[in-house]
Amino acid sequence: MRNIVAGNWKSNKLINEGQELINEIAKGLPSLDSTDVIIAPPTPYLAHYSRNFVATNGIQFAAQQCSANSMGAHTGEFTASMLTSCGIQHVIIGHSERRDRFGENLDVVRAKVNEAIAAGLHVLLCCGESLDVRESGNHFDLISTQLSDAFQQVKVAQMSQITVAYEPVWAIGTGVTASAEQAQEMHRFIRERIEEWYTVKTAESTRILYGGSCKPSNANEIFSQPDVNGGLIGGAALDAKSFLSLIEASETSQKHSQ
Ligand code: PGA
Asked: What is the mean pLDDT of the chain?
C-alpha cells in the first residue's frame, strides 16, 4: 500500500508565499513510486492552487477541516461538497487544535466525517492524547473512543475513504517526538481496533500516519515501523527542503519494506 506524506500548513503563509513553496516542492519532487503527497494550505487558497497545480506534478490538496453541516444558512462555514466542487479530494478532520481550541467534540468530529464521506472526500482523521492522558495510562482507551465514535456511521465499504493520523498532542509543535516504539505500539493498537470493528482486510489496507514533530532527523526511524504508513507534518512542511526529505524518507522506507 502507498504511504502518505501530508503537509498541514495550519494558519501560515500568504497566497504567493505558498505558491512559491509549492513550486519549490514540485521542482524537487522525486518520482513518487510509493508515496502520495498531499498539501493542506489555508482554505482561501485551495481553489486557486488546485486549478493552477492540477496534474502538473504529483501534489494533491487537502482542506484543514470542513463544516459539520451540509449547505444552508450557516454563515462562514464551507461544506464538504463545496470542497469537492473546487477539485479538492482530501480533508483533515479532528486535528487536536480543532478539538481543543474550536470546540470540536466527538459529536462534531463524527458529523464532519459523515459529511466528508458523503461528499466523496478522503478523510485524514486525527486522533491523539494529551500528556496528562498518557501519563495516567489512559491513552489506548482515549484513542479507541475517538476513533470508534468517529466511525459510528462509517460502513466497511467507506473505510477506503479513511486514513487515520495518530498525533500525540504532547508531540505537536513541541519538538518532542514519540519514540519509534511508542508510535508503532499505538499504530498496531489502532490497526487491531479496525480489525475488530471491521475486517482483517480493512485493517490491513487502512493507512495510519504519524504526526507530531516529525522531521528529517527522525522520519527514517518512524516511517520504517511496520504499522506506520507515512506522516502528517506541521512545522517541517513549511520548508521545501525538509518536506522533500520527508518524502524521500517515505520512499526509502517503502523500498526497504518490499
Ligand atoms: P508538527 O505538527 O509537525 O509541527 O508537530 C503536526 C500536526 O499538527 O499535524
From this structure: 95
Whether the CA torsion 229, 17, 54, 48 is positive or negative: it is: positive
The residues that are catalytic are: 95, 167
Confidence check: pLDDT of 139 > 80: yes
**The CATH number of the domain where 209 resides is what?**
3.20.20.70
Q: 197-234: per-residue pLDDT in tens?
A: 999 999 999 999 999 999 999 999 999 999 999 999 99
| Ligand 1 centroid to residue 119 C-alpha, Å | 26
* 106: number of Cβ within 10 Å: 15
Residues with CB under 6 A from ligand 1: 8, 167, 172-173, 211-214, 232-236
How far, in Å, from the CA of 104 to the mean position of ligand 1?
Answer: 18
| Residue range of the domain that includes 133 | 3-257
Instruction: Give the count of domains, the chain.
Output: 1
